[in-house]
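Most newcomers find our protein records easier to grasp once they have seen one. A learned vocabulary of local backbone shapes supplies the integers on the structure line. An example says more than a description, so a record of this kind follows:
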Amino acid sequence: MSDNERESVAPVEGRLIGRVRKERIVATIRSQGFMSSVALAELFQVSEMTIRRDLAELEMRGEIQRTHGGAVTEDPAARSKTPREPFFDERHLVNAEAKVRIAKAALTFVKPSQAIALDVGTTTFELARLIGPELGVRLFTNNLRIAATHAERNAEIYLFGGRLREKEMSLCGPVAVEQVRRLWFDVVFIGVSSITPQGIFDYSIEETEIKRVLIERSTRRIVVADSSKFDEMSLVQVANLQQFDVLISEAPPPPALASSLAAAGVEVVVAP
């Protein structure tokens, strides 16, 4: 626990039952704005694993938002502005020309015979359309649309199993996550719903688990996001800026975000 956290938060005497502990965790984070997992574990005299489980449940209930190393809260009015997840067909029509430009720029990062992971998303879908069988890549995805696109071309494609999200036509859940953990990829292309100086975010908790493991299991990690995603806020943090290597967009990020990306060592590619 940092000195500031020690000075501003009184220790809790004795262990609390789970329901009460979670209520007090929310109250503590709201009063401080941010609390680290380590500090919460020390404060409530439980393990960090218990705290992480508590924070995951509280995030699902919309009471806090997990960040790298801890959690923050927003006021209810701000949380109510978090948009719902638009369906794939809706998103595919938004900034369609920009997504094609981004996909073409992303294609330059694909090399022959590589193992390529493609995350679910409208921009990664456009990239999948451009990867021809002549490159001889092995393509891995949890997205049925991407898989179908490449099946038509007799390309080598591997599909992760799991629970079907019908609107997204994607497969996710513990089965898919465990399959990803057994593999290693040359490069992964990640789609996101927002990117801020705090990191990259997405709408779906289930999809986020897949994204995180894909990032962990890839040599090169590339985020593809059109400029409408800049400085927006979404439900779940996927990773911080230090956890990926390249951002490809059709426009430069705004100054504050660009500065954060540079500090994190992220290469920014603006699609021509």
Observations:
- The chain is about 40% helix and 20% strand.
- The radius of gyration is 20 Å.
- The chain has a mean pLDDT of 83.
